Amino acid sequence: MRKKPLNPNCMAVIMENFKHYVNESVQAQDLGPLYIFENDNIREISFYDRLNILTESEDDIAIFVEQWEKSANYQLQQLNEAEGDDYFRELGLSDEDIAIYQDMRQNPPATANMTPEQRRVIGLVGKAQKISSPILYLSAQAFMMIDKFKDKIIKYAGTIVGIINKIQTMAEKFKEKQPTLYKVGVFGGKVAIALVVVAAISNIAGSGEAMAGELTAGAQQQSEWTIANKEQLTTMGQVLVQKSSSPDSIEIGKKMLEIAAGDVNVNWSDLGELDMKVREMAVAGVRALEKIEGAQAVAEAATKAVENIPDTSQMFRGTGAMNTESALQALKAAAATGDPESIQTLQQLAKGANTPEAQKMAAEILQGLKK
After folding, report:
1. Is 98 within a domain?
2. Handedness of CA 95, 126, 180, 168 (dihedral sign)
3. How far apart are CA 77 and CA 170, in angstroms?
4. Which helix (H) or strand (E) holds 116?
5. Is 334 exposed, middle or buried (0-12, 13-18, 19+ CB in 10 A)?
6. Got the DSSP string for 50-68?
7. Residue 91 phi/psi, 5° resolution?
8. Which of 35, 192, 229, 286 could form a disulfide with 71 if both were Cys (CB 3.0 to 4.6 A apart)?
9. Domain shared by 200 and 315, yes or no
């Protein structure tokens, strides 16, 4: 049970009742398989195991992301071929069986009172649910991918968003027949897209380069950082507009493109507002997933991904600039863990920030870290 109310503005406490993640055997089972294509053969392995032996090598990560994309496409294609007008008939249900099932849905009998015919029909429908399970575990896999690659999310956003969109499209087919799968696909997709965007903004706004570019006086460095920043925003905006069919996602993508198209610098006020809006979408989506019976693994994977994305929302303010104090405090926290990039950025700011106050604060932080 949740011990305290959720704070929609604090991602770190989004779902207190899921703080302790399920054990590894349950994770591995609920996250489903990964299909590996080797020449003319298809080999099934554990997605969870493959993810957890992944190295930090860029080549290894790129290979894994490609494997996951092929595996997800394969499973969704299989599910698509199994679904259609003759969906239940292909599973062995006659028109009479379908009528029995629909009557049971409208008037659920007690398990002890089920007739042999009703039990047989339930067994056949259970088979259908097992075939349909890729929607559940592919959704959980998508959250695990976002969590694992949040620091590289812009590079792999196209692949991840593309699969999320296909999951959402497939889920539409189950709106009437299997509402749980439909809800997981819809709400899970919204949360996943929101997390991709939040992770991307966190990468841009929370990076040492962003803070140095905003707080140093060097015009050339500021210009170089702004150009790189605009390119990342443009990339993310194009991914959402081109790879997603969700109106909400397309709207977010267009907003990112609009911010990136500014005449000079990125408007931090606009980006901050977008960050807050998308974080609120993620909170609402996770709450919805939490309430779906049978979707525990997906909700837990979503929660873990949300909790692990840094909260950079306090680094924005209404003046269109980055909040200097918040930016420096974020650098301080990272530097305290020994992060070399953050330490280097603080050293740079201590020598030449764009205001005396920022320069003094950076110097004091460095001094404090030596104690």
Report:
1. no
2. negative
3. 9
4. helix 116-132
5. buried
6. HHHT--S-HHHHHHHHHHH
7. -90, 5
8. 35
9. yes
- Among residues 113, 119, 127, the alpha carbon closest in space to that of 100 is found at 119
Residue 151 maps to a domain: yes
Whether residues 184 and 315 share a domain: the answer is yes
Are 229 and 237 in contact, with CB atoms under 8 Å apart?
no
pLDDT given for residue 43 in this prediction:
93
CA dist 362 and 320 (Å) reads 22
Does the global pTM surpass 0.90? Answer: no
DSSP helix/strand/coil, 1: coil
| Residue 192 sits in the same domain as residue 262 | yes
Q: Please say whether the beta carbons of 309 and 195 come within 8 A.
A: yes
* DSSP, res 108: P
- 302-352 tens-digit pLDDT: 888 888 887 665 555 444 445 566 667 667 776 777 777 778 778 877 887
Looking at residue 34, its pLDDT comes to 94
Instruction: Read off the pLDDT of residues 106-159 as tens digits, 9 standing for 90 and up.
Output: 787 887 788 888 888 877 776 665 555 788 889 999 999 999 998 889 999 999
